[in-house]
Amino acid sequence: MSHFTRSDQPPQEKQAPPTGDLPQGGPSGPAEHAPDAVATPDAAAAEEKAAPKQKATPDEPTDRDTAPDEPTDRDAIPVASTAGPTPLPDRGWRDRHPALARAAAWTTTALAAALVLVTLLLPNDPNRLTPAEFIRIPVEGIAGAALLLLLPQKARRPAAALAGVVLGLLTLLDLLDIGFIEVLGRGFNVVFDWVLLGDGASFLQDSIGRTGTIGVEVAAVLLVLALLVLPALAVVRLSNLMARHATRAAGTTLVLGTAWVLSAALGLQIAGAPLASRSTSDLVQARMDGVSATLKDERAFAEEAASDPYHHTPGNQLLTALRGKDVIFTFIESYGRSAVQDKLMAPGVDATLAKGTERLRAAGYSARSGWLTSATYGGSSWLGHSTFLSGLWIDNQQRYRTVTAGDHLTLTSAFKRTGAWRTVGIMPGVTKSWPEAKFYGLDHVYDSRELGYKGPKFSWSTMPDQYSLAAFERLEHGKPHNKPLMSEIILTSSHNPWAPLPKTIGWDKVGDGSVYNSIEKAGKRPVDVWQQTDKVRTEYGKSIQYSLNSLISYVEKYGNKNTVLVFLGDHQPVAKVSGDHASRDVPVAIVAHDPDVLKRISDWHWTPSLNPGHKAPVWRMDTFRDRFLKAYGSHPGSATPPATH
After folding, report:
1. What is the pTM assigned to this prediction?
2. Which portions of the chain have biased composition (kind: Basic and acidic residues) (predicted)?
């Protein structure tokens, strides 16, 4: 473009310059204009030669996302014809610091490429988070680059932004998988696991307080926004760069595609990982298959739950061998195989079980124990509870909702159906209404609001186990009844994060729980315990010892000749405690004063102790209900309605 001022007049006619746009002279007024001050073609050429425009080299990335044929800001600015060379408009720090601008452009482009590569290659398993995973060739990146090169400019940018958002969403799901595997030993299910995020927030608030939880939630929201925005910006930037250098980009894409095909054909690997990666495609396919399988499983499980051999068994034909007994089902939070067999935690827990066996034997009780494989791991205790009591394998939230919405017979509702027991629940972990009480057949549930506790919380646990048992004695077991009791008790002191921990005190000192204020203040903080794995595991072991001691001591003091105790763990602790490849086995034991109670399970071949040992039988947790019902006199019923009581 010429540096002449645009005019509608023919170029041969001279015009007087407008005085308003001329530079001011001295105090005498406007400066006079000599004839040589008028711009001429030769003068313009001289200006052009004297002050050449600075242009980026063809290979240099720039922050201006424009194609070669797009007009630039410099071309659109008319330059007034004035005396002397006219300086080009200042485009900011890029013109003042061209070397720094080039470095920033290259750095931004490199970061964009790295971000896209990481999102394409990020594994969803924490055990695969190794450097080798990120130095592979992603086929999805090659295919995406080829597609963007073929699209016209108007379609290219929206497609690039959409691709970036999709990559961000897939990365978010990968991170959820990693978190769920670390805590629950399984990946994130996109159909029914969203509700667990709310439970996680509640756990955080109970563990680190409201302020810390708000900080975590804000950080999580910012991370989600970053995952949605940054990959989109990165893909758009890379697509613009490819458009400006289409020939070179096409050649690079072809070379990488050829390398991927050869690597896949030859099976080349880097540190055990295939060089030719299709991990993103595989994960997408796996998620689609998972959604389809989940929907099919929901229908199949509904049919399974509706088919129950004991559904129509009359109450007078259920649990006939336990009539007159006070039966207590107790779940100990996170009490798993690791507690009794891990080298660091087992010595203390095993000693507690050995002493407990002797203490109970001295009080006239006998015990048998075995192993059950839980349907859950690291958390979601209600899945373990419902699996054990219903005789159905309930390993996800949808199955739990399905079964609790129906009338499938549970061990606890079987006692209620007989009409021979009063059925109660002691639920210190329940802090609001719990409609599932009807499904479990409980006449009354004492939640955290009804147990009368006036002491402090111990992290997540609303009250110490010893207090829960003392409240059970005060509210139900110690009172006269015209029927024996069937009780379901949840002990929560061994719940993650295992700090601070309560201590066993005299039963006459428990009172309303205010005695625990000084114990809680003297305890350890979760943030201090969780700094080292060994500390976490040590405190976990101590929490199990406390829960076991509380339960054993309760039976010693308040049990009688009609007491039958069934206690077990609901699941293994998180992987940080139990290890990356731990089983899902939990101990289960039956304690009774009447020898006939244990004779009925002699064919179970359980260990005659509270500690199952390595050779004790291992059953799936969902098989326990039918075995228990059969052992104690129940028989599958005919298709006739159950007896009414």
Report:
1. 0.72
2. 46-76
β-strand pairing of 366-373 with 326-332? unpaired
Exposed, middle or buried, 615 (CB in 10 Å: 0-12/13-18/19+)? Answer: exposed
* Assigned token pair, 550: 């509380």
Confirm if 572 and 578 have CB atoms less than 8 A apart: yes
Q: What stretches of 185-319 show up as alpha helix (H) in DSSP?
A: 194-244, 246-266, 279-306
Flag whether pLDDT at 120 surpasses 60. Answer: yes
Counting every residue, how long is the chain? 645
The continuous run of DSSP H or E covering 94 comes out as helix 93-96
Q: Cα(278)–Cα(259) distance, rounded to whole angstroms?
A: 14
CA nearest neighbour of 22 among 12, 9, 31, 14: 31
Chain mean position to CA 609: 37
486 DSSP β-pair partners:
327, 423
CA–CA separation, 211 and 253 (whole Å) = 49
Please tell me what DSSP assigns to residue 316.
G
- Tokens encoding 210: 């409201």
Residues 242, 237: Cα–Cα separation, whole Å: 9
All structural domains of the chain, each given as residue ranges with its CATH number in brackets, are 99-292 (no CATH), 308-631 (3.40.720.10)
Contact 351, 546 (CB under 8 A): no
Burial class (CB in 10 A: 0-12, 13-18, 19+), 407: middle
Look-up: residue for tokens 């061209």? 98
Contact 607, 367 (CB under 8 A): no
Region of poorest pLDDT, from 52-66, 160-174, 408-422, 575-589: 52-66
For 432-479, what is each residue's pLDDT tens digit? 888 888 899 999 999 999 999 999 999 889 999 999 999 999 999 999
pLDDT exceeds cutoff 50 at 7 = no
DSSP annotation of 66 reads -
Find where tokens 């080009």 sit. 88
With beta carbons less than 8 A apart as the criterion, state whether 74 and 88 touch.
yes
Contact partners, residue 121, CB within 8 Å, separation at least 6: 133, 134, 136, 138, 277, 279, 280
